[in-house]
């Protein structure tokens, strides 16, 4: 667990983590955002219009070829300050216990977060975007083009959330 990862609430359940990892990954850059404290951070990608900067490591510069033509990107990032052992969570703003895989909480076995962000500008290996919800300096895992034609599912439902504001 990360040294400064967040605690556990009443009603939450943690499990023992596996002894070893099954795979490794590369951080390909860092995400610079205005937020250094969890309480200031947006809860989801649409909660803030703040401009954030994705800084891709120079090594991967050529991998950005063509990205400037995209209006929106799927951004995957690593929630480095999350605990990874929770299976049942009680989000503060809902107050009801739900399984980790029914939630978008950053606390999960592999703390991979995703957001669809609007691309404003590409300056070399720096991408300016709107639509991220992570703390400053969060590690970047991947960038993919968002295809509205295949990624958008107009009739998708999250039953437990239906009817909430
Ligand atoms: C609910 S998650 C949603 C993340 C992503 N949009 C998703 O759906 O996968 C966003 C929250 O994660 C927390 N968070 C942001 N950056 C983090 C980091 N580097 N490590 C751990 N938690 C983080 C903040 O509390 C933020 O409000």
Q: What labels would you give this structure?
A:
165 residues, mainly beta, Elongation Factor Tu (Ef-tu), domain 3, six-stranded antiparallel barrel, three-stranded antiparallel beta sheet, 9 strands, 2% helix, 30% strand, globular, binds S-adenosylmethionine
Describe the protein in words:
The structure is a single chain. This protein is an all-beta fold and 165 residues long. It has one domain (30-147): Beta Barrel (Elongation Factor Tu (Ef-tu), domain 3). 2% of the residues lie in helices and 30% in strands. It has one helix at 148-151, and strands spanning 13-14, 29-32, 51-56, 72-78, 86-89, 98-99, 112-123, 126-130, 138-145. The strands form 2 sheets. A 6-stranded antiparallel barrel has the order 2-3-8-7-4-9. β5 and β6 (98-99) form a beta hairpin. The longest helix has 4 residues, at 148-151. Bound molecules: S-adenosylmethionine.
Q: How is this fold's topology laid out?
A:
Elements: E1 13-14, E2 29-32, E3 51-56, E4 72-78, E5 86-89, E6 98-99, E7 112-123, E8 126-130, E9 138-145, H1 148-151
Antiparallel strand pairs: 1-5, 2-3, 2-9, 3-8, 4-7, 4-9, 5-6, 7-8
Bound molecules: S-adenosylmethionine.
């Amino acid at each position: 667990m990360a040294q400064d990862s967040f605690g556990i609430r009443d009603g939450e359940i943690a499990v023992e983590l596996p002894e070893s990892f099954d795979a490794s990954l590369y951080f390909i850059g860092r995400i610079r955002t205005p937020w250094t404290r969890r309480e200031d951070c947006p809860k989801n990608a649409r909660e803030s219009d703040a401009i954030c900067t994705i800084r891709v490591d120079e090594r991967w510069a050529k991998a950005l070829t063509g990205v400037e033509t995209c209006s929106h990107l799927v951004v995957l990032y690593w929630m480095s300050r999350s605990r990874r052992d929770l299976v049942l969570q009680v989000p503060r703003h809902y107050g009801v216990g739900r399984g980790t895989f029914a939630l978008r909480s950053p606390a999960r076995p592999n703390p991979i977060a995703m957001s669809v962000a609007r691309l404003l500008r590409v300056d070399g290996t720096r991408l300016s975007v709107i639509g991220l919800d992570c703390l400053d300096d969060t590690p970047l895992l991947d960038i993919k083009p968002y295809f509205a034609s295949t990624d958008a599912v107009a009739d998708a439902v999250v039953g437990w959330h239906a009817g909430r504001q």
